[in-house]
Amino acid sequence: MHGKDNIGFLFDLDGVIIDSERRYTEIWSEINVHFPTGVEGFERKIKGTTLSNILSTYFHESDWKAIVRMLDEKEQSMVYDYCPGASELLDKIGSAGLRAALVTSSNEKKLAHLHKELPGVLSRFDVVVDSGMVCRSKPDPEGYLKGARLIGVSPSRCAVFEDSVQGVKAGQAAGAFVVGVAGTMDVSDLYPYSDIIVNSLEEVDFNRICAILESRSI
Question: Does residue 141 have a cis peptide bond before it, meaning omega lies within 30 degrees of 0?
């Protein structure tokens, strides 16, 4: 079945819906000072990946608890706000009666803090897929495939909105239409894995995206 009743929208959280990526870059830079990884560009390489993946890939297991404790302390002091255009795009999706899922590498504790700081943001999505609901971190498509399945839409008829290289790779691997949101990463980093690039969600042509999704095969 084709038409607007069978298209969907899948969103990353940090740097797409909420304006937090700059602070996370600072936080992981501070952590990297205390627990040196020796990885050039570490703060950018980890964008879009789950905490468990970051810990197991870059840090000694003996340091994991201390790193998590430091991250938790800094996250609990964060103040969240919408990225430009995010609230308005979610309004359009809701008004059109279309389905949306949040697919994030964040865990339940962070999402609980987000709900406290920005009430109502999570309820704007039909489904929330967090890090505890997937086994494989982005760039694996598992999260986006699960998000599409839970909103009942074929991945090929979904638009994925992502700001990280790991994220756009995951969206592409899922077979979705990928909208790369520049800012966190350079356009040149996102371009190979995105169908279109925008500087913010303010630039998204909602009707055009709907038309593109409607035209795609299931």
Answer: no
DSSP 158-194: EEEEE-SHHHHHHHHHHTPEEEEETTSS-HHHHGGG-
pLDDT digits (tens, 9 = 90+) for 112-143: 989 988 999 999 999 999 999 999 999 999 99
How does DSSP assign 91-141, residue by residue?
HHHHHTT-EEEEE-S--HHHHHHHHHHSTTSGGGSSEEE-GGG-SS-TTST
pTM of the model: 0.84
Look up tokens 């000072």; give the residue.
Answer: 33
pLDDT of residue 3: 54
Q: Which residues of 154-166 are buried (b: 16+ CB within 10 A; e: fewer)?
A: bbebbbbbbbbbb
The length of the chain in residues reads 218
Question: Nearest 5°: CA angle at 204, between 199 and 210?
Answer: 150
pLDDT band at residue 1 using 50, 70 and 90 as cut-offs:
very low
